[in-house]
Each structure stands twice: as structure tokens, then as C-alpha cells.
Design a protein that fits this description.
single chain, alpha+beta, about 150 residues, Thiol Ester Dehydrase, Chain A, 6 strands, globular, 6-stranded antiparallel β-sheet, 2 helices, about 35% strand
Amino acid sequence: MYEKIYDAPVVQGEEPPFQLPEWIATAPFEELLGMQIEEALDGRAVLTMPFKAALCQGKGLMHGGAVVSLADTALAMAIKSLLPEDTDFVTTRLDLTFHAPVCWGTVRAQAQVVSRDDRTIEGMTEIITAEGIKAATFRATFKIRRPRSVS
């Protein structure tokens, strides 16, 4: 869907060169990695991502950055399932613990919000390999942006 804009520059002061088709949808980076949203509802989300050669590190395992990207995106979709459309929020802290390597197949991210208040949301994501092995546990904190005051 976004392939035509992959190489478009992002320019300061201008709108991004794309629009999401809906509130819970993949953006260009997530599409580039092959992420698919399987479900996102009630503070939970499941995303999948195929392990392609482009995601390999030097030994042929899935690169840690690809694992983090999937985990963070899954948790963002879980959060979106709870917030009003167009709410601005960002990751402010993240932690990933690896348990096993991702060697092949489609990887599954199972995310859930674990706590929230007016501005802070915390959650976790488990990354599951094609064999059903827990490869990683991701924990993150997100902040909801305060509405800008009009002067």
C-alpha cells in the first residue's frame, strides 16, 4: 500500500507523505517489515511478521531491532484499541529480554496493556516463534501527549 512513498523525503514543517487508512493500521515502516494486525481489541493485540532474509543479522537469526519493532508496534495497537482516535502517544521507555532466537517462520507478538492512568500506559508483549517458543518479553511505557493549549 505504501511502496510508492518508501523513498519520499520527510520534510520539516510538512505533513507526512502518507495517511493511515484507519486508526488501527500499519504505517509504512511496519508494512515494510511485513507486519500484519491479526486483532486489536480491549487493550490486547496480536500481530504477526514473516521472517525474511532482510531481517537477518550476521548469523542468520532475526535481528533484535526487528523483534523490538514488532513488539513495540503490537503494544501500540493494543493501546490504540483503548484510546480515542487520533490520540497522540509515544514510547518513552522500553525493555526487551531475549529468551530464545528467532530462526525461521512467522513470528507472533501478543501484547496487552497492564496499567494506565491519565497520561501513562504500561504494557508487555511476548514474542512467540513459529515453533511456539517464547523468544522475548518486551515491556514498555507510553505517554499520552497533553492537549496543546490555544493562546
